[in-house]
Amino acid sequence: MNPQSTMDGGRRWLTTVGTNLPRTVVTIDDRVTADEAFRLAAAGTGLAWHGDFHAARNLLAAMSRRCGTAAGKPFRVQRDHRARRARILGRLLVPLDSGHVLPLRRGPDVREACTEVFGPSETASLVSLRELLGIVGAHEWRVKGVEIPALGAKIHPHHGVFSPVRGEYVDLVARTPLPAKELAFDIGTGTGVLAAVLAHRGVERVVATDNEPRALACARENFQRLGFTGIETRQSDVFPPGRAPLIVCNPPWLPARANTPLERAVYDPGSRMLKAFLDRLPRHLEPGGEAWLILSDLAELLGLRTRGELLTAFERSGLEVLGREDIRPRHPRADAREVTTLWRLTTRATPVPD
Questions:
Q1: I want to staple 208 with a disulfide (CB 3.0 to 4.6 A). Which of 2, 150, 189, 350 is the partner?
Q2: CB neighbours of 237 closer than 8 A, spacing ≥ 6?
């Protein structure tokens, strides 16, 4: 997830989500009405704000209200609505001077947060206010950390790495009996929270993989903070070389398109990662070992995948279910009907032919 930049009027365009600088950019201040700002942004015009920072935040909130809502609509309609809303709100822009200094009245100090994401800067730039607020919020979480009861410690997520604020899946890994303690693979480690839980439970060696360098840097920092020296990180699409008696994977839960890099932790187009994990698992799981696949049934509740399709995928990959651990969500924004499951899988003695 590398920041993208282009030059515009002497200011560099900064983004981590792959959007382009609008072709037309006009300068606005607190004299613009929310209706006019929304009309321009909806038509594709970028709005470069010069004025009070808090007034810019208020304008962003007013524009958001004008986007309306898709509550109660089908999942795909809601996703399209959120994508359009993000495009419109992303066109309210703010300047950054050299060193990521925000030159707006009452503007916060964003230098450290922006340097973490974009690297050092000696040139002036433009950035979406909505994205800047996300960067600042992520920096605050990185500094504060997320309390993980299973560790008795905090995990510190980086910007662009999915934060373990919903801890049910962590609890599942913390309470399920370990089949072995000599080696485990953690596939798609993210912040490294599950690898850390395994090490905390006494697994002697953990290999944590991810295909995002930003995630691996985050995981390594967390392992160092926690003092876990027996965890190795590897950049890989799925598995590291070799076999292990325990393989843990918490893949993206929803088989749908990701609109931003961060959403790749939640959305898995066509269930690509899930299918790759299941198809390759028999070649990496030790005979008699267990794979712990952690999935919410939210995809089933939204009509994106059926339970039968999931069980068929297990069967097709030559896997059988040894058991399962279920947990209900605790997060107030989660669907109360949702159940998160840790599926305990193993390979069949006689694999099914292709």
A1: 189
A2: 211, 276
Any idea what the Cα angle at residue 142 is, between residues 120 and 220, rounded to 5°? 85
Please report, as a single letter, which amino acid is at residue 180: A
Full DSSP string of 138-205: HHHHHHH-EEETTTTEEE-PPTTS--TTS-HHHHHHHHSPPS-SS-EEEES-TTSHHHHHHHHTT-S-
CA angle 70, 74, 80 (to 5 degrees): 60
Q: Which two tokens stand for residue 51?
A: 């004025």
Measured CA to CA, the distance from residue 129 to residue 31 in angstroms comes to 18
What is the edge-to-edge ordering of all strands in the sheet holding 7-8?
7-8, 11-14, 125-128, 92-96, 46-49, 25-28
**How does 310-322 read in b/e, with b if 16+ C-beta sit within 10 Å?**
beebbeebbbeee
Residue 22 is given by DSSP the state P
Q: Tell me the residue type at 291.
A: A
pTM of the model: 0.89
Query: What's the pLDDT tens digit per position in 174-189?
Result: 999 999 999 999 999 9
Dihedrals phi, psi of 4, to nearest 5 degrees: -110, 145
Q: What is the mean pLDDT of residues 4-21?
A: 74
Indicate the SS3 state at residue 27. Answer: strand
Q: Which tens digit of pLDDT belongs to each residue from 124-143?
A: 999 999 999 999 999 999 99
Q: What are the structural domains of the chain? A: 7-141 (no CATH), 145-347 (3.40.50.150)
Helix (H) or strand (E) segment spanning residue 246: strand 244-249
- The enclosing H or E element of 39 equals helix 34-42
